[in-house]
Give the backbone structure.
Amino acid sequence: MNFDYEGKGYFAKIKEKCVSVGMEGEEIFRLCPVSAVDAGERSDEEICLGAPRIEENGDGTAVVWEAKSSLWEKKEYVFRFTPEYATYCVRVWGRGAVDGVDFFIGDRKDRFYGSGYEAADYTAPLGLANSDLPGRIFTTAEDTYLGFSLTGGFSPVPLAFSFRTAGVDGRFLLGVAAMPDNCSFDGLTYKNLKLGLDIARFCLHAGFGGYQEVDGFWESPQIVMLTADTDLDCFRRYAAWHYDRGVPRAATENVPAWWRGPFYCGWKEQAVAPGYGSIFDAATQDCYSRMADTLDERGLRPSVIIIDDKWQKEYGTALPDEEKWPDMRAFVDEQHAKGRRVVLWFKSWNPEGLPDDECILSEDGRKLSLDPMSPAYRARVRNVMHTLLSDDAGCMNADGFKIDSIIRIPLEKNMRIHEKGYYGVSLLYRFMELLYTEAKRVKPDALMNNSCCHPLLAAFTDQARLHDTHFALRDSVRFMRERAELFDAMIPGISIDTDAGSGGTRRDFMRYARECRSFGVPDLYVLNPIEDSAVTPEDWEEIREIWEDYRRENGLG
């Protein structure tokens, strides 16, 4: 069988056991339709692959292969071609717990399994927070994982790779869709299969951890294929694919003026504050009161003060440490009187202080994290949000949360979770949904600030934070502008918290202070920089003027 499809910017040539896709007249990938859906220790291998059939409908043209395998009673491999996009998924019938899917891997009994490629390298949108890595471009001979990784602060990052091919001007994207009802996986990996004798193939891998139970029928998340002129345009179109299929967008219109800053966050000042044993010890009412006084003395007028790690007695219970904060409400009221809001740093996943029935447990009973599916934890969050955000007597009357440490989601095997089927991205989705819903129930204008750089989480994101940079880097403006552009591609129109975009020198600190307002809300992290980053009284006057100009330009008074 031979069948050709011509879309806008891409083409596909379908043969009996291969689908070639490309652009500008050049083949980019030779995709084997066979994908392995493994279950635990059992490997999925093909018994037979039938001839493809063509199905036409109003949504485009589908090409479907039927197969049997060593694990599943029946399988189908489905390519769908529309003018704008091509997609692929694998369907299985039978019973088992999906451990992982190797997309396009072929029959692993075949000596030369996998799929062929002409792409030379690819852009992986890692974010690269706190990283010394020089860039995000990898050759197609290198493997890369996108998901929950300590090499990046964005969680999740866009789950897609944008490929460059020598002699081709545009880019070809392969990515996995994450939809609210089909996202129980931990990320996407590009894997190069070096088979010897100068033969190399590739596949894409998504891990499901054994938490995706199949009882009759299951369909994998879609692999999305598209083209664009640039990497960023590819990621923008990947996001649009989700929105076009009903994923809710962020609410970016008519946002409260105070969300637009400028901001002051005390994290780095905690590190240099005198008289404390550690950066965490300095998260006190006394220390933050002194920071607020310094802001007043220098004529700096932030719309928000962010109280950072660790104002809580315990991360999991998420209530103030009364030894550090004898009267948090008084501090908040004082800042409100000065026209400032108070946002609290919130640590994700940490189970400190929580009982077992509110936690995800390991197979041997260790506490791994809080469990957003636990009825007891969900009830706790409702009460905590009331205590922290309400203006009722005995409550703190704070104004929102900077949600951090999202990358620390538990990904072990055989975890004990209160509801089956939730793992990886789907567990994060339910966690962010819980925090957002309960916060807005108490205070509708509460600011929910996070680093979820994916359209799936747009509805729970009021503001995107660009995350930290490594102190050894020396071009914060470029790195952070690129992150802001990626966020805007994923969540169009989102407010950007420019965060601690400064390396360890005065020059870089001041360059960032001058230029960050061009791509987001200015955010100052320190009032007393030290050593290489020490600034002068004249610098502080310049920062004051920058902030005042920013306020005037944005109608903030």
